[in-house]
Design goal:
Alpha-Beta Plaits, globular, Antibiotic biosynthesis monooxygenase, transmembrane helix, ABM_predict
Length: 188
Amino acid sequence: MSTSDTRRRGRLEEPVTAVYSWRAKPGRIGEFAEWARGVTAEAARFPGNLAATVVHNEDSRDFHVVHQFATRRDLHTWLDSPERQRWLAQARTLAATKTAQQHRTGLETWFHVPSEAAATMKPPPRWKMWLISLVSVYPLVLGFQAWVVPLTASWPLPLRAALFPLVLLTTMTYVVMPAVTRLLRPWL
């Protein structure tokens, strides 16, 4: 679905992040790790896929498979695909259990760190998300304005304007917010 199609429907869809938590069978952790890498690689080939990754601590049997798609429709295209069904059939032989499933949109995805208790946890209050976002984004904006803007002053305005959210949102989503949410998790 194009952006103009979405706008015509009266709202702009937000990206959606789906987290599926699994516990590998004893003695099958290596095989499950291979499975997790394979399923994320498969999901990455689907239209609208923004990211696919695996979160796993070496001393644990728990795996968190994270998929981020541009829209819910894109996510459901992946979820309902025959390719995913084949991967799920294989997972059933390697996993002791599927421990949780979550779908999140908007700022909630920045403040979510998968854990065993995450299935029952609510997102933090909006004021906390706002405050942490503000404090986290300010140094990035300051650095961008100091170092990048002068280098791109001769670029056309649409290109300069596109660079700012691309750099800022990518850095916030994949670098800053995962670290900040881990650090401030007890407060959140």
